[in-house]
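Tokens in:
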């Protein structure tokens, strides 16, 4: 499974937005890897930021 898919799945399961560090911990990924994927996913409109530094699935 691709990093983006893993992150998106975790965000869909979360009841509210998550910080990058929380996503990394939940998914067992490095924070830098999550940061990179989050940026790409925002550009692709797969996720949004309900409040500063928090991310949620659309």
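Residues out:
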């Amino acid at each position: 499974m691709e990093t983006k898919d893993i992150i998106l799945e975790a965000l869909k399961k979360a009841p509210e937005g998550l910080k990058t560090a929380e996503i990394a911990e939940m998914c067992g990924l490095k924070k830098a890897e999550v940061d990179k994927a989050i940026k790409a996913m925002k550009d692709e409109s797969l996720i949004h930021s309900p409040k500063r530094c928090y991310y949620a699935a659309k």
